[in-house]
Structures are given as C-alpha cells and as structure tokens.
Design goal:
With 185 residues, this protein is α+β, with helices and mostly antiparallel strands. It folds into 3 domains: 72 residues; 49 residues; 61 residues, Nucleotide Exchange Factor Grpe, Chain A, domain 2 (Roll), CATH 2.30.22. 62% of the residues lie in helices and 18% in strands. It has 4 helices and 6 strands. A 3-stranded antiparallel β-sheet has the order 1-4-5. Strands 2-6-3 form a 3-stranded mixed β-sheet, with no helix packed on it. Helix 1 crosses helix 2 and helix 3 runs antiparallel to helix 4. The longest helix has 59 residues. The N terminus is likely disordered.
Length: 185
C-alpha cells in the first residue's frame, strides 16, 4: 500500500505526469477514432469499386449490343446503294417494252453495268486481273489446261468467270483456262 501512496504523491507533485496522462488520454481517443476513419475510408473505396464494376458491366453490355447491331445491319449501306441499280433495271425493262431499237436497250444495260462496277469499287470490291498473268492458286481456279504454242506454260489464257477481291481477301476466285506445254508429236 505504501507503493500506491508514493506513486499518487509523485503524480501530484510532478506536473509532467499530468501532461503525460492527458497525452495518453488524447492518444487513446485518437486510437479509438482511427479505426472509425479507416472503416469509413474502406467503405468509401468499396463504394467506388462497386460503382466502377457496374460501369464496366454497362460498358460490356453496350459494346455487345453495338457489335450485334453492326453485324445485323452492317450490309445496310450496300443494299441501299443497290436499290438505285435495281430501279434502273426496272426502267430498262419498261423501256424495252416501248423501245424498238435494241441499241438503246443495250446502252441502258451498259450504263447499269458501269453503275454496278462503281458501286463495287466504292465498297472495296475489285476484280482480279487474270488474263496473261501467271496462274496463282490463291486467286485462280483452273478449269482446264490447254496446250498452246503462243503462251508460256502456267499463264492464264482465258477467263471463264471473273474473280473478285474484297479489300485484301478473295471474295471469289477467277475461273480460268491455263496454258500448258504444247504436245510434241
């Protein structure tokens, strides 16, 4: 008991002890408040995370919808452009019923053909040049080999059906006849 009495006396006599006890009291309050601040901060970060997660999910859904619509309606522009050509074919058919000069009808068909070729070019569909070119199995489909004297073997000498590329991919290979070695008798 004497020890307690002595330490109480020391506390009363020593003003520093009062300061230490108040510092200890403030420190205790701070340690009590710090977890609350950390919990609030943690809750704030959690809310930001959940908001960002929801935004990401919305973004994914929006991109999926846009992609689906692009696939579904991507050809719309081509078909719209084809409508004008279809209208012109209708006009030629009507003109054929009224016009007696076949040259006028042929001229109308040639104009529509030119319009169609411009449309294909606009949409990056280009014909594959084949005549007098080296046979290339990537862009040509050989229908026949014919022995000839005036062409180098392996050269395309006739085009049965024109081939086309869409941008850098073969849309349809050209069907061709290829020169072969002449037969020696």
């Amino acid at each position: 008991m004497k020890k307690n009495k002595k330490s109480d006396d020391e506390n009363e006599m020593n003003p520093q002890n009062d300061e230490n006890s108040s510092d200890n009291h403030i420190a205790e309050e701070q340690t009590i408040d710090e977890p609350k601040v950390e919990i609030d901060e943690c809750e704030e970060w959690k809310q930001k995370y959940l908001y960002t997660l929801a935004e990401l999910e919305n973004f994914r859904k929006r991109v999926a919808k846009e992609r689906s619509e692009l696939i579904k309606y991507g050809s719309r522009d081509v078909f719209y452009d084809l409508l004008e050509i279809t209208d012109n074919f209708g006009r030629v058919i009507e003109a054929d019923k009224k016009e007696s000069d076949p040259k006028v009808i042929v001229q109308g068909i040639e104009m529509i053909y030119d319009q169609l070729m411009k449309l294909l070019q606009k949409h990056e569909v280009k014909p594959i040049e084949s005549l007098e070119k080296e046979f290339d199995p990537n862009v040509h489909d050989a229908m026949q080999k014919v022995p000839v004297n005036d062409s180098k073997p392996g050269t395309v000498i006739q085009e049965i059906q024109k081939g086309y590329k869409y941008r850098d991919k073969v849309l349809r290979p050209a069907r061709v006849i290829v020169a072969a070695e002449p037969e020696s008798h």
